[in-house]
Amino acid sequence: MKKKIEELILQAVEKLKTDGALEQEINPPITIERTRDPLHGNFAANIALVLAKPAKSNPRQLAEKIIASLPQHDMVTKVELAGPGFINFFIDTKSQFEIIRQIHDSGSKFGLSQVGAGKKVQVEFVSANPTGPLHVGHGRGAAYGSVVADLLNAVGFDVHREYYVNDAGRQMDILATSIWLRYLEECDEVLPFPSNGYRGNYVREIAWDIHKNANNEYRRPVELVLENIPLDEPQGGDKELHIDALIARAKTLLGTSLYQDFFQIGLNKILDDIKADLHEFGVDYQQWFSERQLMDDGSVEKALERLRAGGHLYEQDGATWFASSQLGDEKDRVVVRENGQYTYFASDIAYHMNKLDRGFDQMIDIWGADHHGYIPRVRAAMQALGANPAKLNVLLVQFATLYRGEEKVQMSTRSGEFVTLRQLRNEVGKDAARFFYVMRRSEQHIDFDLKLATSKTNENPVFYVQYAYARVCSVFRQLDEKGWERNLLLGMENLELLVEEHEASLVSALVRYPELLERAALQYEPHQLIHYLRELAHEFHTYYNAHQFLVEDAALRDARLNLIGAAKQVLANGLGLLGISTPESM
RNA sequence: GCGCUUGUAGCUCAACCGGAUAGAGCACCAGCCUUCUAAGCUGGGGGUCGCAGGUUCGAGUCCUGCCAAGCGCGCCA
């Protein structure tokens, strides 16, 4: 519809040009907008305002000329000059009501489009370290990432969802060692637990499990474990040195193979838990990508070679540096440490090279906002690898601050005092949790008040939207009970009976859905869909209160049923994209 | 100190990437259930869009400078 109007205006401008009323070389960008106020019609064009200066004319006069040159079209009932020079278009209600037929015909496919057709896009999100269960902070990334992916999919992109598993590095060693120390406790050894270890209950559970299966196979005397280990922080030492020494001790006392058991069992247990957790949250991936694999198959070495070949690496202080500051980063970064170990950044370069090699047209990384300082160096790496850095799009998700009423809830994986995503789901349910997470722009901080979200009779807006859906279902149930039958065809033939204002505004909400979806997808802004659904629900509730649907007149009744049937379909499509259920009764 | 993000109604947030009189929800006040679910609807009050300049037909939106909050600035991940 928008495009039709664009064409009309273009024709008018061409006509003015041939008439000599406009200079030939003037080629304005035509932007058509939906109006906010129905008094301004359905669409507004600002072309006269934009054109006024180059045409050396005043906007209102110019607009009049354009209006006079507009070709007739039966879709447009009225064209008006308004305000400083807007041209307002009023669309025939009959053409608007065509949407009801379209929605019915397309069903669950209504609103989908093909703007992204032929383009491969990769969305990487959550990617939390597998050192513990997901907490509520990860939940936001999970909900946001999965909806962004689903939206892109809905507008035609070939979407690949991926979780980058940080199964290498020091954090994993700390986990493995934490499990082993807890295991020793299971063997009735008495020893202090490192302040920098993972203290969560899940660590004890894993240790308990291992002890059950292996008995004392991994048991080593405490004296050997603690011998010559530097003091922990509470004892006036350094917690980092303390834990690193414990890790080294675990490796020597157990030997590589037995130590790996703890590493691997811990990783598997936690990763399985994360997978199940996300799946229950409605989040699924095409691929779980292992960091360790990059290390093992030489990808990291290959990536560094490529950088070296491009002259981007140099040695200093015994370490290997990436000269990222020449590519927009604020300083150079170490990729190989003095001790010969790769940094996390090195494997991340390899990971992004891998993404490039897989031929994605667009790569979307969704990170917690605290990682924003990391963006320039990854961009620099992309560039150094010879790729267009614009292919990488990093979307930041701000932290959710948790409150229990007035009180702020502290979170730390180490200390084990955190609210897990699973706990949150159990308390508020998947629907409310997803809705809440995605309701706001991702860059906004959100205060997640557990008290408020867990109170069942709250003002949670998810119910408002679901209730609209349930009400439509209820109307159809009532229809049955009254012994009436819906005649779809009769209703479609009588759409012109829908003359009420409420009906017109409900229809114009429905008409907007496809373009809304496209915008929300291309801008990575799921919250727009939420806002739209709330508006749509509002239009429906208003209509519901103002008019009776189940009237005696069958033609009018069926026309109205077709209208609310269309509303039901769009609500279902929108909620479906958000991964939120559509209860038939509430 | 430098960088990123944020600042809009009492509170929580929108505003279609420059458009017309800045909108919702919650809270507050006043109404609507013998009729399809009142988890709903209708009406009302409430704003110097952090501050000051600038760009132009037109600025909450773009530019500059300040102010405030959060985060980041490791041979951690």
Task: Give a quick summary of the entry.
With 586 residues, the chain is of the alpha/beta class. 52% of the residues lie in helices and 12% in strands.
Describe this structure in words.
With 586 residues, this protein is α/β, with parallel strands linked by helices. It starts with a helix and ends in an 8-residue tail after the last helix. A hairpin with a 3-residue loop joins strand 3 and strand 4. It is built from 21 helices and 15 strands. The chain is globular. It has a five-stranded parallel β-sheet, sandwiched between helices. It binds one RNA strand of 77 nucleotides through helix 6, strand 9, strand 10, helix 12 and strand 15.
Radius of gyration: 31 Å
Unreliable stretches (pLDDT < 50, length at least 5) are none
Structural class call reads alpha/beta
Overall residue-averaged pLDDT value:
91
Number of strands: 15
- Principal-axis shape: globular
Distance between the termini: 37 Å
Major β-sheet profile: 5 strands, parallel
Helix segment tally:
21
Report strand order across the widest sheet.
Answer: 7-6-5-11-12
Q: How much of the sequence is in beta strands?
A: 5-15%
Helix fraction?
Answer: 40-55%
